[in-house]
Amino acid sequence: MLADLVARRSFERPVVIALPRGGVPVAAEIAKRIGAPLDLIMVRKIGVPGHRELAMGAVVDGDRPEIVVNDEIARHAGFDRRDIERLADPELETIAKRRTTYLQGRKHVALEGRTAIVVDDGIATGATMRAALRAIAGKNPARIVLAVPVAAPDSLALLRPEVDEVICPTQPAFFDAVGAFYAHFAQTTDEEVVRLMAAAPPGASA
Prior knowledge:
The protein is about 35% helix and about 20% strand. With about 210 residues, the chain is an alpha/beta fold. It has a 5-stranded parallel β-sheet, with helices on both faces. A hairpin with a 2-residue loop joins strand 3 (about 45-50) and strand 4 (about 50-60). Helix 1 (about 1-10) crosses helix 2 and helix 4 crosses helix 7.
């Protein structure tokens, strides 16, 4: 459904960028449908210690790692910016390892002047996506499009100022978890990410 909606827009010089791991199967379908390169943006959630699924921030890899903080959750958990930067260090190590595994030495697609279509399997709090979008904006794309199958409406509203366009077919009034909106939501494996990247449309390693 999402791939159909993206294809109808006929974006100029598109590049599909996935947030691994869960975003890769979704992004691969879109890239295949529109014949666009597939790339990755490596983001890791910074969870509250003891409650790792509760994101108080996220970090995205790059020459200068981008850290985005959910101030409300961080404040409620009793953590300041310095604490969060310290907690980001092991996540950056994980990013480095996964980048080596997933990309197999391939270079990222240059985004300058192109349409960056940023894809994940869904958005709950939006912390990881916000970090990704800000990092992508720094690469000077002509246009940034956020494309996800399902998202919490309030989180999506907070992300809209970060992009030029949002494509999201499912925005339920009662949002529990991303997996609740899939018929099958098994965890995406490293092996699946490697396979999908290897089968990506030509130009993925440009």
